[in-house]
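Job type: complex structure
Entries:
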Amino acid sequence: MNTHDEDRLKRLLQQALPPVESDPEPGRDLWPAMLRRLDARPAAAPLRFWAWFDAALLAGLAAFAALVPASIPVFLYYL
Amino acid sequence: MNTHQYLRAYLAGVFVPTLVLPLLLAVFIVARIVLQVPVPIEQAMIFPMAVVPSLFGLWNMLWLGSHERTHLSIGLHGAILPLVLMPMGATTAHCLGVLAFSSHGVTWFQAAYVPYALIAPCFVAALAAYYLVWKYIVGALNRVLGIA
């Protein structure tokens, strides 16, 4: 590869790649967004509550169907 | 994946009743033919076959169209459906002779007697069942089909 080819390659690369800005930092402060995301993580506790609530609801339904078997065909009629 | 959202919502909605209908049919046929219970199967099947699947699909379309504004979860939205479905179903059943009222309770399919005292608990149980079905089955299908 001679000097002419190197210059041509350099020119082509400069044309293809966007120029790097003098100040490569983002336009806004990303730390508040990071803090919000970290604060959002402990949402697992309400999820656990809802999982228990739904399990209790399902158990209650099963108990109700066992106590009142006549309700089963009526439920199926509406499903 | 953003095309035909309402069609996908309808299909996700009709999934559960379409799955339950053959099971229901099998239960009624076994009750009538094997166990010789005099169940009026033809009249009993009209509402679950003609109304329930369509209403499930339309209700899911309604959720898709409204949850941006209402922010109602899919489970709660589904739990409201019995408020619409139950009066319709009871009226249809009564007109077709599937539901009979007496002084102490109601008789479904000329076989299943439910006293009036248990109507309210039955209604609450239906709300709970619908809440669970919509939250876990229809909601999961909505996620699979990319509309939730």
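Summary: DSSP finds four helices and no strands in chain A. Chain A has a mean pLDDT of 81.
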